Amino acid sequence: MTNTTYARDDIQRLHRLMAQMTGDEKHSPAATSTLDALWVLYDRVLRVSPETVRDPGRDRFLLSKGHGPMAYYAALAEKGFIGQEVLSGFGGYDSPLGHHPDRTLVPGVEIGSGSLGHGLPLAVGSVLGLRAQGLTEPRVWVLIGDAELDEGSNHEALAFAGPAGLEQLHTLVIDNGSASYGWPGGIASRFEAAGWSAETVDGRDHQALYAAYTAPHPGRPRAVVARVEPKS
Predict the structure, then answer these.
(1) Helix, strand, coil content of the chain in percent (nearest 5)
(2) What is d(CA 63, CA 212) in angstroms, rounded to the nearest whole number?
(3) What single-letter DSSP state applies at residue 89?
């Protein structure tokens, strides 16, 4: 089987897991826009597992785009962080899987999210906290939506991170054309202007995503802009 076949089978399996979660269909586009980028990250890049969710040396993943977390929950279930049997209770009163993820209820979730604009500042703080503890190996990844870049808090965070040389910081921007203002020259140019290493890729191309995720960026934070179909 080719890598393309494996990727197609993986995504079909994740879609079946997502189909078990109903009641938040209005946010289905928000979920599916992240699916491929999330899966490549969890399957091939992140150094964290159900056994190491409390290990200080683990990589951290922060989902800032917390609305429509079905793809996130599907990836966590496929990797064994949560049981697949809990997916069908999504959004229920006694379910740990809320319409926004809760770090106190779901193993592997690092932050409670849903209020947009907070994930990147939290990721910057996480890197600074790791540095203060002498932990320079763990990487911090944060997934944000392109519309979150309309928030001033994100501009402050990315303006700080470049000059501070936060090499452990990685930002994955899902670009589905929903930002109100955008940026001349594209989103990647905004990060580059602030001293980041940045690249734009097809958000459905697993090989391109993996190459962008693993590209070296000594002394600089890294931003990967994953372009997907425009929000309908």
Answers:
(1) 45, 10, 45
(2) 19
(3) G
pLDDT digits over 201-228, tens only? 999 999 999 999 999 999 999 999 999 9
Tell me: the pLDDT tens digits for 66-125? 887 999 999 999 999 999 999 999 989 999 999 999 999 999 999 998 778 899 999 999
Task: With beta carbons less than 8 A apart as the criterion, state whether 164 and 195 touch.
Answer: no
Contact 140, 62 (CB under 8 A): yes
**CA torsion, ordered 217, 185, 35, 58, to nearest 10 deg:** 20
Find, among 96, 109, 107, the residue nearest to 66 by Cα: 109
Contact 74, 18 (CB under 8 A): yes
